[in-house]
Amino acid sequence: MAYRILLAEDNEMEQSALKDIFTSEGYQVDSVSNGLFALDKVKDNEYHLIVTDLVMPVSDGIQFLYSLSSLDREIPVIVLTGYDNIENMLSAYQMGAIDVLYKPYDVDKLLDLCRKILENRI
Asked: Using only C-alpha atoms, what is the Rg of the chain?
């Protein structure tokens, strides 16, 4: 079974690179540029994992996590952020994120975390 990942990242280069990396690992990936588009995707599709940036235009990662919690779906979320801000990190965890990785992150660590989540080892 191919796992489906939703990737929400506003930086086009990073979004493209992550999508390529996840795809090369055998995952099916949908990518969007903000939390509003991500929420629309979640409403219309089933995902096994969400990887979202924290700071995005229109609707950021925290707003997305808040909206996601109202959908009554249990989808694990990894948050990526370039801002080492304890308040944002705590908010992400309070909204249900499994982990927060700071940019620049180690791709191998991200992939290992994804594998563990998808294989229900976390």
From this structure: 13
Burial readout 55-85 (b: 16 or more C-beta within 10 A, e: otherwise): ebeebbbbbbbbbbeeeeeeebbbbbbeeee
Closest CA to 79 of 120, 63, 44: 63
Q: Which of 43, 90, 99 is nearest to 62 (CA)?
A: 90
Bridge partner residues of 52 (DSSP): 8, 79
pTM of the model: 0.93
Mean pLDDT of the chain: 92
CATH superfamily for 4-118 is Response regulator (3.40.50.2300)
pLDDT at 122: 55
Is the Cβ–Cβ distance between 85 and 76 less than 8 Å? no
Residues 6+ apart with CB under 8 A from 23: 29
Query: Does the pLDDT of residue 116 top 90, yes or no?
Result: yes
Helix (H) or strand (E) holding 40: helix 35-44
